[in-house]
Design goal:
Number of domains: 1
Helix content: over 70%
Structural class: mainly alpha
Strand content: under 5%
Number of strands: 0
Largest sheet: none
Order of helices and strands: HHHHHHHHHHH
Distance between the termini: 32 Å
Protein backbone atom coordinates (compact mmCIF):
# COMPACT_ATOMS: atom_id res chain seq x y z
CA UNK A 1 0.00 0.00 0.00
CA UNK A 2 1.44 3.40 -1.01
CA UNK A 3 1.80 6.01 1.70
CA UNK A 4 -0.67 8.43 0.12
CA UNK A 5 -3.26 5.67 -0.27
CA UNK A 6 -2.73 4.60 3.33
CA UNK A 7 -3.23 8.15 4.58
CA UNK A 8 -6.45 8.75 2.61
CA UNK A 9 -7.86 5.35 3.53
CA UNK A 10 -7.09 5.84 7.21
CA UNK A 11 -8.58 9.35 7.08
CA UNK A 12 -11.83 7.89 5.76
CA UNK A 13 -12.02 5.28 8.53
CA UNK A 14 -11.23 7.60 11.44
CA UNK A 15 -13.32 10.38 9.86
CA UNK A 16 -16.40 8.18 10.08
CA UNK A 17 -15.42 7.22 13.63
CA UNK A 18 -15.03 10.90 14.59
CA UNK A 19 -18.46 11.84 13.22
CA UNK A 20 -20.19 9.01 15.09
CA UNK A 21 -21.82 10.44 18.25
CA UNK A 22 -20.16 9.13 21.37
CA UNK A 23 -18.91 9.96 24.84
CA UNK A 24 -16.42 12.56 23.60
CA UNK A 25 -19.16 14.37 21.68
CA UNK A 26 -21.45 14.44 24.73
CA UNK A 27 -18.76 15.85 27.03
CA UNK A 28 -17.65 18.55 24.59
CA UNK A 29 -21.20 19.73 23.85
CA UNK A 30 -22.23 19.79 27.52
CA UNK A 31 -19.12 21.67 28.65
CA UNK A 32 -19.39 24.28 25.89
CA UNK A 33 -23.16 24.65 26.31
CA UNK A 34 -22.76 25.45 30.01
CA UNK A 35 -20.53 28.42 29.10
CA UNK A 36 -17.26 26.66 29.96
CA UNK A 37 -15.68 27.35 26.58
CA UNK A 38 -12.08 27.34 27.83
CA UNK A 39 -12.70 24.07 29.67
CA UNK A 40 -14.34 22.64 26.53
CA UNK A 41 -11.15 23.30 24.59
CA UNK A 42 -9.24 21.66 27.42
CA UNK A 43 -11.47 18.57 27.08
CA UNK A 44 -10.74 18.51 23.34
CA UNK A 45 -6.98 18.79 23.90
CA UNK A 46 -7.14 16.06 26.55
CA UNK A 47 -9.01 13.71 24.22
CA UNK A 48 -6.45 14.31 21.50
CA UNK A 49 -3.62 13.80 23.99
CA UNK A 50 -5.09 10.40 24.74
CA UNK A 51 -5.37 9.65 21.03
CA UNK A 52 -1.71 10.61 20.53
CA UNK A 53 -0.64 8.33 23.38
CA UNK A 54 -2.69 5.39 22.04
CA UNK A 55 -1.21 5.91 18.55
CA UNK A 56 2.33 6.18 19.89
CA UNK A 57 2.05 3.14 22.14
CA UNK A 58 0.49 1.12 19.32
CA UNK A 59 3.30 2.08 16.95
CA UNK A 60 5.76 0.88 19.60
CA UNK A 61 3.81 -2.35 20.08
CA UNK A 62 2.94 -1.61 23.72
CA UNK A 63 -0.86 -1.59 23.38
CA UNK A 64 -0.74 -5.14 22.05
CA UNK A 65 -0.57 -6.03 25.74
CA UNK A 66 -4.24 -5.02 26.05
CA UNK A 67 -5.27 -7.72 23.62
CA UNK A 68 -2.70 -10.24 24.84
CA UNK A 69 -3.27 -9.78 28.59
CA UNK A 70 -6.73 -10.31 30.02
CA UNK A 71 -5.65 -8.77 33.34
CA UNK A 72 -4.32 -5.60 31.68
CA UNK A 73 -7.48 -5.11 29.64
CA UNK A 74 -9.80 -5.78 32.59
CA UNK A 75 -7.86 -3.39 34.83
CA UNK A 76 -8.19 -0.50 32.38
CA UNK A 77 -11.79 -1.42 31.54
CA UNK A 78 -13.06 -1.41 35.13
CA UNK A 79 -11.13 1.74 35.97
CA UNK A 80 -12.91 3.34 33.02
CA UNK A 81 -16.31 2.04 34.15
CA UNK A 82 -15.77 3.42 37.64
CA UNK A 83 -14.69 6.83 36.36
CA UNK A 84 -17.66 7.15 33.99
CA UNK A 85 -20.15 6.08 36.65
CA UNK A 86 -18.70 8.61 39.09
CA UNK A 87 -19.01 11.36 36.47
CA UNK A 88 -22.59 10.35 35.55
CA UNK A 89 -23.67 10.12 39.20
CA UNK A 90 -22.42 13.64 39.93
CA UNK A 91 -24.24 15.10 36.94
CA UNK A 92 -27.58 13.43 37.72
CA UNK A 93 -27.44 13.79 41.52
CA UNK A 94 -26.53 17.46 41.55
CA UNK A 95 -29.17 18.35 38.95
CA UNK A 96 -31.82 17.44 41.56
CA UNK A 97 -30.28 19.43 44.40
CA UNK A 98 -31.70 22.67 45.79
CA UNK A 99 -33.28 25.63 44.09
CA UNK A 100 -32.30 29.12 43.03
CA UNK A 101 -28.80 30.19 44.03
CA UNK A 102 -27.97 26.77 45.45
CA UNK A 103 -28.89 25.15 42.15
CA UNK A 104 -26.66 27.53 40.24
CA UNK A 105 -23.74 26.87 42.58
CA UNK A 106 -24.31 23.11 42.28
CA UNK A 107 -24.44 23.27 38.48
CA UNK A 108 -21.25 25.33 38.41
CA UNK A 109 -19.55 22.75 40.62
CA UNK A 110 -20.60 19.94 38.31
CA UNK A 111 -19.51 21.87 35.22
CA UNK A 112 -16.13 22.36 36.82
CA UNK A 113 -13.70 25.25 36.74
CA UNK A 114 -13.52 27.00 33.39
CA UNK A 115 -9.82 26.32 32.95
CA UNK A 116 -7.85 24.61 30.22
CA UNK A 117 -6.04 22.37 32.72
CA UNK A 118 -9.27 21.08 34.32
CA UNK A 119 -10.75 20.25 30.93
CA UNK A 120 -7.52 18.63 29.77
CA UNK A 121 -7.46 16.31 32.79
CA UNK A 122 -11.07 15.27 32.19
CA UNK A 123 -10.57 14.67 28.46
CA UNK A 124 -7.32 12.75 28.94
CA UNK A 125 -8.74 10.48 31.66
CA UNK A 126 -11.90 9.79 29.65
CA UNK A 127 -9.85 8.77 26.62
CA UNK A 128 -7.11 6.76 28.34
CA UNK A 129 -9.53 4.81 30.56
CA UNK A 130 -11.31 3.48 27.49
CA UNK A 131 -9.41 0.30 26.54
CA UNK A 132 -11.45 0.05 23.33
CA UNK A 133 -9.37 2.92 21.96
CA UNK A 134 -6.25 0.83 22.46
CA UNK A 135 -7.87 -2.23 20.92
CA UNK A 136 -9.09 -0.13 17.97
CA UNK A 137 -5.57 1.12 17.27
CA UNK A 138 -4.06 -2.35 17.65
CA UNK A 139 -6.60 -3.74 15.16
CA UNK A 140 -6.68 -0.89 12.64
CA UNK A 141 -3.36 1.00 12.60
CA UNK A 142 -1.14 -1.89 11.36
CA UNK A 143 -3.43 -2.37 8.33
CA UNK A 144 -2.42 1.06 7.04
CA UNK A 145 1.32 0.62 7.57
CA UNK A 146 3.22 0.25 4.25
CA UNK A 147 5.72 -2.57 4.51
CA UNK A 148 8.72 -0.42 3.56
CA UNK A 149 8.06 2.42 6.03
CA UNK A 150 9.33 2.59 9.65
CA UNK A 151 6.43 1.89 11.97
CA UNK A 152 6.89 4.65 14.56
CA UNK A 153 7.04 7.64 12.16
CA UNK A 154 4.22 6.22 10.03
CA UNK A 155 2.13 5.47 13.08
CA UNK A 156 2.56 9.00 14.35
CA UNK A 157 1.65 10.39 10.93
CA UNK A 158 -1.55 8.35 10.82
CA UNK A 159 -2.38 9.36 14.38
CA UNK A 160 -1.90 13.03 13.47
CA UNK A 161 -4.53 12.58 10.74
CA UNK A 162 -6.97 11.30 13.38
CA UNK A 163 -6.12 14.19 15.70
CA UNK A 164 -6.54 16.79 12.94
CA UNK A 165 -9.99 15.49 12.02
CA UNK A 166 -10.94 15.34 15.68
CA UNK A 167 -9.91 18.97 16.22
CA UNK A 168 -11.91 20.15 13.20
CA UNK A 169 -15.05 18.30 14.31
CA UNK A 170 -14.64 19.41 17.93
CA UNK A 171 -14.38 23.05 16.80
CA UNK A 172 -17.72 22.66 15.03
CA UNK A 173 -19.29 21.16 18.16
CA UNK A 174 -18.02 23.95 20.42
CA UNK A 175 -19.21 26.70 18.08
CA UNK A 176 -22.64 25.08 17.74
CA UNK A 177 -23.04 24.47 21.47
CA UNK A 178 -21.88 27.99 22.33
CA UNK A 179 -24.47 29.45 19.95
CA UNK A 180 -27.19 27.69 21.95
CA UNK A 181 -25.54 28.48 25.25
CA UNK A 182 -27.77 31.39 26.31
CA UNK A 183 -30.80 29.08 26.28
CA UNK A 184 -29.04 26.00 27.63
CA UNK A 185 -27.63 27.96 30.59
CA UNK A 186 -31.11 28.66 31.94
CA UNK A 187 -31.64 26.68 35.19
CA UNK A 188 -34.35 24.39 33.80
CA UNK A 189 -32.50 23.71 30.56
CA UNK A 190 -29.25 23.16 32.46
CA UNK A 191 -30.88 20.52 34.64
CA UNK A 192 -32.23 18.70 31.59
CA UNK A 193 -28.83 18.90 29.87
CA UNK A 194 -27.04 17.47 32.92
CA UNK A 195 -29.57 14.66 33.35
CA UNK A 196 -29.47 13.69 29.68
CA UNK A 197 -25.66 13.83 29.58
CA UNK A 198 -25.46 11.87 32.83
CA UNK A 199 -27.68 9.13 31.43
CA UNK A 200 -25.57 9.05 28.23
CA UNK A 201 -22.33 8.75 30.22
CA UNK A 202 -23.87 6.04 32.43
CA UNK A 203 -24.95 4.22 29.27
CA UNK A 204 -21.37 4.22 27.99
CA UNK A 205 -20.21 2.92 31.38
CA UNK A 206 -22.74 0.08 31.21
CA UNK A 207 -21.77 -0.71 27.63
CA UNK A 208 -18.09 -0.81 28.61
CA UNK A 209 -18.81 -3.03 31.61
CA UNK A 210 -20.71 -5.55 29.48
CA UNK A 211 -18.22 -5.60 26.59
CA UNK A 212 -16.03 -8.61 25.99
Amino acid sequence: MAMSTALWSFALVVGLLTLTPGLDTALIIRTAALGRRTRAWGVVLGIQTGTLLWGTLTSLGVTALLTASHVAYETVRWAGVGYLLWMATRMIRDSFRGKGHATRKSAEAVAGADTLAAGWRQGTLTNLLNPKMGVFYVAVLPQFMPADVPHLPMGLLLTSVHITLGMIWSSTLIVSATALGSWLRKPHARKILDRVTGVVVAGFALRLSLSD
